[in-house]
Write a structure and sequence with these properties.
Chain lengths: ~190, ~400
């Protein structure tokens, strides 16, 4: 009988907060949380100021998304809804645009985003070996973020630095002529 | 000894791109001054006479484009600079904008005067934030000096979408929408940004314009190939010794580009194939290397000049693996609006995988040809129409079955 029973509804477990500073004492933890909330408030304030400067026209959507992402690191749902209200356009359209362009993140990426180009010039220059080295070094797969939130790996379009392939970018800064044995040294800079 | 001919890149390495005074010192913005003292129709006729054709890939006569917008009746018109250089292996526009941003601004202002537009937009791809900064600096310097007059330019930053290089998708993106191509006609010169007449011009094309105004249309028409005059900035990538950008007259042979300017193949290995024009370009075998790079000469061998990317493959490369990479690129970049492209790019990619795995048959090649033909005829925009080219030309010129 049990096989036919309805499967129990799986509640999404509340994710434990990632501790950025596991060495801190419990006493320090409270201050840290307070500081964190403070930071969040500052971000929101900055975002509101940004909206105040907007002229409320449709063409501002993509620039606004860029700026909001620069503040929050990604585009949370609340931010998209707030923008839709400000620009007087349906939330579906805002979401449509935010999800269309590869550079917009709808979930929080790592602190440092490593983008990798897979197009033909990088492909023949051995980007696959670079990807393998990055995945091994960071212990994650393409499209994932390290548990400490420090690095994300994602694919990108050609970044136009094909004079020295293969190329990866970290937070937009290009690294050219990347070889698997250089990965450790590159990552150490972040 | 063959020499480069630097017209578009004439100031590269010679002036500080972040200093407008440097540009003014080498005669910058003089062409704009001259243009503004010329009658508009005459100015457009001069540009048309030069034979300048679009350097982004479509090869349309720039003067003609301007004259469409000039004749269109509207209260506002726009000049849009297409700096969404997304074609893999291409970085010519980056080279131009990083080295000489004012030449692009001046070209835009001349076009603006010619058609009666007072606003310009530069749509810079999201992968080039550093270039956008250079452009913004240049614009604010030009404003300060007052050289642009009543013409104002704004930089729009893209956010990562290959298809936005297509002019109507680019316009949609500036308007704050998803970058999906519009149905044509109407074409942008008549009905473009916010429904107004809009000239969308590539960076390299714009950088040519100041000199044409300065030295005259017939001077330009006399350079390179007669049907596609001037120079072309090419970017060399892959298994070639000198990787980098070069600027050569349009009647230069592909062979010279690779073996003279490019210095031949790395490690003295043998040449296998070259792909010109970016990811959607044709794969060209050794036997066709004595072709001029001009638009029409390339078309006559079933290839395109496209964006001017030159991607060289040596004998050790597995062509099957390379076309798989190209096909999967298009599968990813198809916007999904029209069925022939959405499905076609997926099927082509699957068929290429099959061939790479060594399981391909004559019937698969036939299927590739049929899917490819359907796509080039039925796809909605240039992305899908050109997507099958590398695969089709690779199976035409090379035996990929064993």
């Amino acid at each position: 009988m049990r096989e036919n029973a309805e499967p129990a509804i799986e509640h999404e477990q509340e994710k434990p907060m990632v501790k950025l500073y596991p060495f801190e004492s419990y006493r320090g933890e409270r201050e840290r949380q307070a500081a964190e909330t403070d930071k969040e408030l500052q971000k929101k304030e900055k975002f509101e100021q940004l909206l105040k400067q907007s002229r409320g026209v449709q063409s501002e959507l993509i620039p606004l998304l860029h700026k909001a992402q620069a503040i929050f690191g990604y585009l949370p749902k609340e931010v998209l809804l707030r923008i839709s209200k400000e620009l007087k356009m349906p939330a579906s359209r805002v979401f449509g645009v935010a999800s269309f362009y590869a550079q917009f993140h709808l979930t929080p990426p790592g602190k440092n985003v490593i983008r990798i180009c897979k197009s033909a010039p990088c492909h023949v220059a051995g980007i696959d070996r670079v990807i393998a080295a990055l995945e091994q070094e960071l212990g994650i797969k393409m499209g994932e973020t390290t548990p400490d939130g420090k690095f994300s790996l994602e694919f990108t379009e050609c970044v136009g630095q094909c004079q020295k392939t293969p190329v990866i970018t970290i937070n937009g800064t290009p690294f050219v002529n990347v070889r698997p044995d250089k990965i450790k040294a590159i990552l150490a800079q972040y | 000894m063959l020499q480069e001919m630097r017209l578009v890149l004439r100031n590269a390495g010679k002036i500080d791109p972040l200093k407008i005074d440097d540009y003014l010192a080498v005669g910058g913005y003089q062409a704009l001054k001259k243009a503004r003292s010329t009658d508009r129709a005459e100015l457009i006729e001069e540009i048309r006479k030069s034979g300048l054709r679009g350097r982004g890939g479509a090869g349309f006569n720039t003067g003609q484009k301007l004259s469409f917008t000039f004749k269109a009746q509207a209260d506002q018109k726009y000049i849009v600079c297409n700096a969404d250089e997304g074609e893999p292996g291409t970085y010519k526009d980056r080279a131009i904008m990083e080295n000489d941003p004012h030449a692009v601004l001046e070209g835009m202002a001349i076009c603006g005067y010619a058609v009666g537009a007072t606003r310009g937009y530069i749509y810079c791809r999201g992968e080039y934030p550093q270039v956008a900064d250079i452009l913004r600096t240049a614009i604010s310097q030009a404003r300060e000096k007052g050289v642009l007059g009543d013409f104002d330019i704004e930089v729009c930053l893209g956010a990562g979408a290959y298809v936005c290089g297509e002019e109507t998708a680019l316009i949609e993106s500036i308007e704050g929408k998803r970058g999906i191509a519009r149905s044509k006609p109407p074409y942008p010169p008549v009905c473009g940004l916010w429904g107004k007449p809009t000239v969308v011009v590539n960076v390299e094309t714009l950088a040519n314009i100041p000199q044409i105004v300065e030295k005259g249309g017939s001077w330009f028409a006399g350079i390179g190939a007669a049907s596609y005059p001037g120079t072309k900035v090419l970017t060399l990538t892959g298994d070639v010794v000198n990787k980098g950008y070069i600027e050569v007259p349009t009647n230069t042979l592909i062979r010279d580009v690779i073996f003279k300017f490019g210095g031949g193949i790395v490690g003295g290995r043998k040449f296998q194939a070259v792909q010109i024009g970016g990811n959607s370009g044709a794969i060209i075998p050794e036997s066709l290397l004595d072709t001029e790079i001009s638009f029409d000469a390339m078309a006559s061998i079933g290839a395109t000049l496209g964006s001017g990317a030159v991607f060289v493959l040596d004998e050790t490369r597995d062509l099957r693996d390379v076309i798989c990479s190209m096909a999967s690129f298009f599968e990813h970049e198809s916007c999904g609006k029209c069925t022939p492209c959405r499905e076609g790019t997926l099927r082509l990619s699957e068929l290429c995988e099959k061939i790479r795995a060594g399981r391909g048959s004559e019937a698969d090649l036939e299927l590739i040809r049929r899917v490819g033909q359907t796509m080039s005829l039925a796809c909605f925009c240039g992305l899908g129409q050109a997507a099958p080219t590398p695969v089709l030309t690779a199976i035409k010129h090379f035996n990929l079955l064993n």
